[in-house]
Amino acid sequence: MGHAGQIWLLLAALLFWLSDISVAIDRFAAGGYINRLWGLGFYYAAQFILAVLALCASTELT
Length: 62
Known about the structure:
By secondary structure, this protein is mainly α. It has one domain (3-61). The protein is built from two helices and no strands. It has helices at 3-28, 33-61. Helix 1 packs antiparallel against helix 2. The longest helix is centred in the C-terminal third of the chain and has 29 residues, at 33-61.
């Protein structure tokens, strides 16, 4: 994985962190639909980035 891949991996980690923050806010502070909405958006974006990175890594190996 090159430098660009590392930046994408860092972005995915940041998005997962933001998703976890939204879960914590929803559970312990101010529950509501908006927390679930942006939390799921961050979660799915992070999953998509990781899937693309895994696909790119697997094509580099073959």
